[in-house]
Amino acid sequence: MYYKYKEILYATRQQNKYATRRQNLATSQAQKADIDAIVMGRNTFQQVLSFGVWPYTKPVYVISSSLNKLPDEYSGRAQILNLNPSDIIEKLHSDGLKNLYIDGGALIQSFLAEDLIDELIITTIPIVLGAGIPLFSELSTVLKFKHQKTEVLLNSLVKSHYLRQR
Length: 166
What we know:
single chain; alpha/beta; Dihydrofolate Reductase, subunit A; five-stranded parallel β-sheet; three-stranded antiparallel β-sheet; 4 helices; 27% strand
């Protein structure tokens, strides 16, 4: 079975001069026509809440084992799922959602551990935080990706696109 997933990494989560750029970039990436739904971890969801405005028009799924209820003002804008990556795929595919935007360090790691990522779009912001959840962790097998393209955004961000080699 072939799955098509996209994820994007943002290297900053703090309020700084890149916060607005991060919000705008996150929104523009996730709103692309070929994305059917956004799947994010709880920590990423909490960061999105700090934007002060809901930036998405696509369906949003928050993956969490500890979050039981969304804040009232976000009811109907997102759904909470407490599922493992392969069950998330099965559920969303059965709902007709095929191309998923995966966001959040721990969530991305769990999808990579099950070899469920077919496309990587990694955007690097030139700030080293020294803390946070890394994008990659140990994997039981090597996953090979082929570089497709790299572009510079806003004269400071670097976006690289890779396809999974199977």
